[in-house]
């Protein structure tokens, strides 16, 4: 495990289970060039989350202080009442917290079961794809996505981030946390290898360069290690 560089964003929640990485034999590597010969990885990952939604939600509530601080810095950068989208919102944990801070959140998730849990928490939620979020251009003061980009196939990274950039107004804030590394692989849900999720691990330098090329100004970034190594980023959409 690489040394911990920062304590800014040590993820304790989000779309990843620590137990998955305690079993060295759980990964099923697939070469990126072969991805289209298999079933749609996004559809299968969504189906998995539909199956595990309630258990996942129950395991996503214990947040460490570093993650809480990162989330608070993101929220503090937004105007009072600002509209913020949580892409890949899952059961609505963070969107509900944003509402408590006086923001106006909307959650977006492909999983109907996850969206239903978010709605049960009083979160306004749209069933949709974070790669093409159902959001009007320039409509957001903030865009938040934690442990969700890691399920987007590598070939779709740039168009996905362009769509996020378009949804933010100039000066809008991006809060992003995703896994680091290299490569794409199927990973079974712990203790149930019949349920798979597609994981995509990105090199920090490459992802930061993509964000800059698209039109984001990175204000903060940090790598931290828990059961995975994470890159957390706060960035703003540059004025145009």
Automatic annotation (TrEMBL):
Region (Disordered), start-end ranges: 15-38
Listed Pfam families: Methyltransf_25
Record has DNA damage as a keyword: no
Keywords recorded for this protein, A-Z: Methyltransferase, Transferase
Biological-process GO terms, alphabetical: methylation
Database matches in InterPro entries: Methyltransf_25 (IPR041698), SAM-dependent_MTases_sf (IPR029063)
UniProt domain Methyltransferase: residue ranges: 84-172
Gene Ontology MF terms: methyltransferase activity
UniProt-recorded name of the protein: Methyltransferase domain-containing protein
Species: Nonomuraea phyllanthi
């Amino acid at each position: 495990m690489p040394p911990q560089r920062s304590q800014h964003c040590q993820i304790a929640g989000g779309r990843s289970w620590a137990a998955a990485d305690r079993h060295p034999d759980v990964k099923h590597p697939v070469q990126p060039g072969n991805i289209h010969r298999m079933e749609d990885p996004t559809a299968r990952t969504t189906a998995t989350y539909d199956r595990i939604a309630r258990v996942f939600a129950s395991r996503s509530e214990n947040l460490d202080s570093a993650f809480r601080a990162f989330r608070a810095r993101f929220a503090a950068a937004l105007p009072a009442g600002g509209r913020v989208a949580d892409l890949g919102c899952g059961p609505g944990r963070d969107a509900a917290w944003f509402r408590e801070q006086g923001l106006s959140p909307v959650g977006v998730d492909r999983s109907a079961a996850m969206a239903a849990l978010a709605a049960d928490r009083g979160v306004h939620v749209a069933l949709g794809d974070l790669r093409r979020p159902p959001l009007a251009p320039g409509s957001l003061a903030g865009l938040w996505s934690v442990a969700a980009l890691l399920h987007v196939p590598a070939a779709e990274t740039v168009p996905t981030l362009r769509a996020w950039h378009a949804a933010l107004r100039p000066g809008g804030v991006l809060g992003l946390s995703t896994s680091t590394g290299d490569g794409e692989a199927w990973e079974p849900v712990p203790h149930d290898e019949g349920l798979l999720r597609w994981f995509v691990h990105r090199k920090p330098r490459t992802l930061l360069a993509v964000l800059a090329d698209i039109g984001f100004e990175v204000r903060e970034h940090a790598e931290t290690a828990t059961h995975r190594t994470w890159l957390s980023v706060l960035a703003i959409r540059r004025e145009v």
